[in-house]
Amino acid sequence: MSVMLMSILVGLVVLILSYVVIRLFTFIRWYKKIKKVLSHFPGPKPHWLFGNALQIGCFHDFVCRNHEEYVEKQNAKAYTFWLFINRPILQLTHPDTIKVLMKSNAPKAKSGAGYLFVLPWLGDSLLVSDGPKWERNRRLLTPGFHFSVLNGYFKVYNDVADTLLEKFASSCKDGKYIEIFKLASLATLDTLLQCSLSYKGNVQLVGENHPYVKAVKRLVTLVLARALNIFLYNPILFRLSSTGREFYKLCDFVHQFSEDIIAKRRKELLFTIC
């Protein structure tokens, strides 16, 4: 092996090691800073590498346990846990802590894994976009929520509310407690579809058996499954996995569902104008 080739190899090794050391040093500084900030909040003790990922099991049960321990027993207004060593989560559980975040003028980060995971599904929409594009879309959308516009949809609001109240009444007629989140979510979706696109798909009556609702619910489950599996963070590995294939298939379905409704509404508007 020539001296020149040996020098090149040594140089490459030094560059790679330097890069690794710099990244490691940067991560350690970030980790210490975040850990110091989050130490002011209660939460389950994390593993040094896996965080609380090994304790989660069923994510719903994990959140319920934390809520009972830190919110109900300790009256905490926020608590923290770690998905992995590089995925700290600060869970806000009280209006006082949420108000601080919502009223802050500081830029809201939209580049984390949580946003990247839903990007193929939601696209660069108002929820996910940032900067000038977000400001432009917000300006375009705001007039649609003016009182003069919303007043024309009172019949839709009332019809949706009547259906929702009927669902409440039928669900608790035996004096049982009911979970209103699912029913309220269906009512919200029903209102949005009717007001924005004049789509009447009996979403509340069909319930979670509606193909679109079922697909969205499954997409949320798949996003959460990806968040809990560090090997699926890589986009290529995720796309090759069974979870990724199902995710992208459902994305195609919900996109096609939306495009069909928009195309139908567009034709109706053109026919009305002509």
Automatic annotation (TrEMBL):
Pfam families in UniProt: p450
Enzyme class at the top of the EC tree: oxidoreductase
Record key words, sorted: Membrane, Oxidoreductase, Transmembrane, Transmembrane helix
GO function term, MF aspect, one: heme binding
Keyword Protein transport carried by entry: no
Enzyme Commission numbers on file: 1.14.14.1
Coiled-coil residues: none
Cited InterPro entries: Cyt_P450, Cyt_P450_sf, Cytochrome_P450_Monoox
Segments traversing the membrane: 6-26
Sequence similarity: Belongs to the cytochrome P450 family.
PANTHER family: CYTOCHROME P450 FAMILY 4 (PTHR24291), CYTOCHROME P450, FAMILY 4, SUBFAMILY B, POLYPEPTIDE 7 (PTHR24291:SF201)
Name the record gives this protein: Cytochrome P450, family 4, subfamily B, polypeptide 1
Originating species: Mytilus galloprovincialis
Lineage of origin: Eukaryota, Metazoa, Spiralia, Lophotrochozoa, Mollusca
